[in-house]
């Protein structure tokens, strides 16, 4: 299957699924139905999608973003997040 056919097929599937979600009759399957939000998120994600944040010496800003997410997560699970809380975010790997 060539790229054009694959894109067309994915667009068709997505269109069908979004129509179901936009009815408001399905709960929990789609968190937000907001194209502007998707566009902003995609613009951000496209900048870092193929970077490996485990290389902290190379991606210092990703390290900062990761620390902020970890701090927010620690705040969710503890009234007083420990200054020694730590973690790492990864989406998998090879």
List keywords for this structure.
single chain, 94 residues, mainly alpha, 3 helices, 54% helix
Helix fraction, binned, reads 40-55%
Strand content: under 5%
Order of helices and strands: HHH
Largest sheet data: none
- The tally of helices reads 3
By DSSP, the count of extended strands is 0
Radius of gyration: 18 Å
Distance between the termini: 25 Å
Q: Give the overall pLDDT as a whole number.
A: 82
Tell me the structural class: mainly alpha
Low-confidence stretches: none
What is the approximate shape? flat
General description of the model:
By secondary structure, the chain is mostly helical. It is built from three helices and no strands. It has helices at residues 3-21, 35-48, 60-77. The longest helix is centred in the first third of the chain and has 19 residues, at 3-21. The radius of gyration is 18 Å and the shape is flat.
Describe, in short, the structure shown.
The protein is mainly α.
Outline the fold blueprint.
Layout: H1 3-21, H2 35-48, H3 60-77
